[in-house]
Amino acid sequence: MIDKKASFQRTPEPAEQTEQAQEGGAGLWRAIRSVMRTQRRAPALNPAPRDQPLPLSFAQQRLWFLDQLQPGNTAYNLSYIFSINGSLDVAALEYSLNCVIQRHEALRTIFVAQDGVACQMILPSLQIDVPLWDLRHLPPDEREAQVQRSIHEAIDQPFDLQAGPLLRAMVLRLSAAEHLLIIGIHHIVFDGTSKDILWREINEFYQAYSAKSQPDLPDLPIQYADFAAWQRGWLQGEHLDAQLKFWKQHLAGAPAALELPTDRARPAVQTFAGARYPLLIAPALTSDLRALAQRVDATLFMVLLAAFDVLLLRYTGQSDIVVGSPISGRNRGELERLVGLFVNTRLLRADLSGNPSFEEVLRRVQQVALETFAHQDIPFEKLVEELQPQRDPSRSPLFQVAFNFSGAAIPVLKLGDLEVKPIVNERRMAQFDLSLVLREDEDQIFGALDYNTDLFEQSRIARMAEHFQILLAGLAADLSLPIGNLPLLTIEESEQLRGWNAATQAAILPGCVHDLVTAQVERTPEAVAVRCGAEALTYAALHAQATQLAGYLRAHGVGPEMRVGLCVERSVELVVAVLAVWHAGAAYVPLDPSYPQERLAFMIADADLALVLTQAALREMLPATTLPVVCLDRDAEAIAATPPLPSVVRDPAQLAYMLYTSGSTGRPKGVQVAQGAVVNFLHTMQAAPGIAATDVLLSVTTLAFDISVLELLLPLTVGAQVVLVDRTVTSDGVALGQALTASGATIMQATPATWRLLRDAGWDGRAALRVLCGGEALAPELAAYLLPRVRDVWNLYGPTETTIW
């Protein structure tokens, strides 16, 4: 559910949507008319009996439920501010507002529980006061401060859904001819279209009051409660099943969340603190976008939505994007004049895979828009109830980003002969992580980005708004460009990026990772390189076993640019196996034995492996495969009898490893990283945070995450020692704390979750320990706990794809 507070944010009515489609081209208009004709004819909407409890609509039910969870929550308080110039008759205004309240049952409805079920209770009559606050006597600065206080009090004061009233109003008199009308109302009885109805009827009653006549308003054959009962009766059986079937197919496999980069750690429970950043698309670009829409037989709504999808792709790296978009929900004539909560939310899913051209993306978006238009009957709240997505209290279900575009003209507001202008008040609530709200008016498009201030800084949203403008200009200039090539950065950002890239390229060093280890073998052959439990290998022994295993792999067909699957327990053999694969010229692909069989089977097939290297105890955990399988323990004698592979020069451009992502955006994807990138990374990490030959690094991370590259290889490039602990230790805070002490570790890299595990187990730190924390956001409270207990704390971040921290 989305309701927009500013005047430009009303959701277009169905008639307006078809007008926009008609402007998009005759072909699209015919398609929409075909969709509308195929929709099932709904039963008649008749008055519901008033001698029995009246149900809530699906949308009302959700808001009632949220209010029960968090009484006093103001996230769904709506507020409207109007500037009225002229000689305002406050008594006539109060009379007119109360007449509208009497005319629309929704405005005199309260919500009570009967036998544990929420019901609507319609009050026979309701009169509210419209107090007048005269601020003329105040100096300008104090007057403005009082205006802001009054506005925020009206917005932030909770409504009592059980007691009512759910609407309040006040008038501020700034001068003899200057007034502000502030109306606050709860979303459970109101939406954006209701605002236009409310004002139109206030004006009718105001004019009639002044003329001592009756307003020219048609009777209302039904009320909102009749709609709620009708909706409950219709959305069941075959019609509900048909709607649900579409939405289940439409959302099958969709990502649970859109992972926008945030400036703050996401709170454990969703918050609604918000702000608004204005956005204006200049007339020239607006004209270009309109022309583009005409040319490709689309609507401006579709063009802007497709562009927003591309922006989200570029920010998240996710090619499967789900955005919520409001629709008026008033697709019957009886509903056009009713005040109430009708607005619904469509889920618009975009497939941006394959780096298509923007023209192709637009075609995909157009198809989805048509399909979802044909299945808009089911309320979003009912969809959530039926689909039962896995709930995350920190996010809204099914989507976290919204898009709202209206092409309807801004209505001219009148109050008798007085001039009325809506005032855009500062938005302090955000129902979603991010919402792009746009409106077309005359020769330009304007709007805002509404954002959650507990997640984002204004500076990030300002950059996003600028990037969106640059993206729009780029696609308007050339539709055929792949979306990954569309411009996004400002001139300053592009120059800065070129400088960074130039510096990075100059820093890349020759050679491969195992060359660095081999050089260290020559310097300190008898120093202990790796330990795990009672097993230990010196640098010389590590090199001898790795080159011997490399020779065995070569004898089994493994060569340069091939990929070897590694499914090996955390042990000294794991380090031997990694180096052996590199000495053979190949790259490793971790196969974590804790992964489901389906995921492992997919990775084995997708990675095009030449061979799988494992241990006998893990062999049975792997899915069936026709690939050659070498067991380090079972084949130990044959490996030991193989001559070591001679050292040869390797190309830094060769692949070092291929890691598969979590699969949160759909199927897991393999990220390929070259040897030269890892060499450059390790050299940089030697300097900062820094490591010396006297250090001991305790390794706790699975090989399936790139953090393991730092843990296993950084010590071996400087003559330090790496100590591995098995997965039973890493999941036990007490055991891990004991391992830290027993190993003499001076460095440990782990996620915040692991450091919390240690803290919660009573670990009190280690003065010589250097803490590297990455993989997740480091919360201030955890940093505050660690800092006085260890040598230093490094907060690190690095995407798998970039080999940077």
Question: Can I get a quick summary?
Answer:
The chain has 805 residues and is an alpha/beta fold.
Task: Walk me through what this model shows.
By secondary structure, this protein is an alpha/beta fold. Helix content is 39%, strand content 20%. The chain has 26 helices and 27 strands. The strands form seven sheets. The protein has a seven-stranded mixed beta sheet with strand order 16-15-24-23-25-26-27, sandwiched between helices. Helix 24 crosses helix 25 (752-760). The two termini are 40 Å apart.
Task: Name the overall outline.
Answer: elongated
Content of β-strand? 15-25%
Structural class: alpha/beta
Radius of gyration: 32 Å
What is the residue-mean pLDDT, rounded to a whole number?
Answer: 88
Strand arrangement, major sheet = 16-15-24-23-25-26-27
| Helical residue percent band | 25-40%
The separation of the N and C termini measures: 40 Å
Can you summarize the main beta sheet? 7 strands, mixed
Count of DSSP E strands?
27
Number of helices: 26
Regions with little confidence, pLDDT below 50 for 5+ residues: 1-29, 33-39
